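Re: beginner question about structure tokens

> Can someone show what the tokenized structure looks like for a real chain? I only ever see the sequence side.

Sure, here's an example I had lying around. Input first:
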Amino acid sequence: MNIQKVYIKNTLKNNKKILEFLSNIKYKNELEVIYFDEDIKNLIEKFSLKISLQRDIKSQKNIKSLIFDEQKGKFIKKCPCTPHYLGCEYYVVELSVGCLYDCSYCYLQEYQNLAAMTFYLNFDKLFLEFDELLTENPKKLYRIGFGEYADSLFLDNSMNYTYEISTYLAKVKKYKNYLIEYKTKSNNVENLLKYEPSGKEVIGWSINALKISKNEEKNAANFFERLIAMKKCIEKGYFVAIHFDPIIIYENAAIDYKFVIDKIYEKIDKNKIIWISIGSLRFNPKLKPIIEYRHPTSNIIYGEFVKGLDNKIRYFKENRIKIYKKIIKFLKNNDENVFIYFCMEDNEIWDKVLGLKIKENNDIHKLFCKRLQFLTNSRETFE
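And the corresponding structure tokens:
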């Protein structure tokens, strides 16, 4: 964790998570700690943390600052997905925003445009929002993900927040209608291994071909480190999820994806893989020049692309279908009961690749409910 500066809201100065972080972080003697009172927008302006793409894009090679603040808006939101494509009724938690892994394709480079990662520490507010959501419809299954706006386990080794979140929810026994997913590219699972899973946590890993992991995900754990962490979590009793997203199309890509798929099934219990998502590279046109400047050795943006219905740049549909069919064949060769879903694709893709007639988002959500019931042998049904 190569962090150079930490900005801490004065009201959080004695927060137990702050104290835990400062006592656990390596190289603390080299760390500059700055306390602030102002609104975060003023803080960003005061310390020039906003990236001006025209002026600073070439110099922003690494994000090495952390901001600890309080969430003023909503923690839990419906997944924004993307216009004109199918979603899966997923909820996301904005516990942190920004990522120091700095993957070349990451949309946060354009979406956040900030030379820092922000972490929110008013957990009481988060827990109140959990209460509100889970009592809204006790018969509905709520899948709630950490990791949409930042890697969910990036700071967990130094702050142990997954324990606090899962412990809170486990104490509230009346809530049975949820699954929490911690999405990550890390191998930071030491804290997750210290306590017994409640059966409500899913640890989800983003996985890519070895070539892509090496060249485009340089600061994240490598594939084999992630695989070891995945195996440890399964042995502890967690469900795991795998996200082949974004799939990058290049010559012989299918062979490379087959290698990682076969390695996964060679090392772990297939019955503990709760779901696998598949999606291909897509990005806002504004991201292209950012990748060109910040990641000059990357060539992922020079494939055969077209503008999609959501105005994002995507691979041609026929090429997406082709690579999806190959990857799904590799998955089903290892597990005929594997549960696969698409991220940000339309009903034609679902039909042509999986043979499923999907008309609306709730159709996908119902598939998740059936999957959970199948894996847990539960008689309890959710909407």
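Each token stands for a local structural state, so reading them left to right follows the chain. Confidence is low (pLDDT under 50) at residues 54-61.
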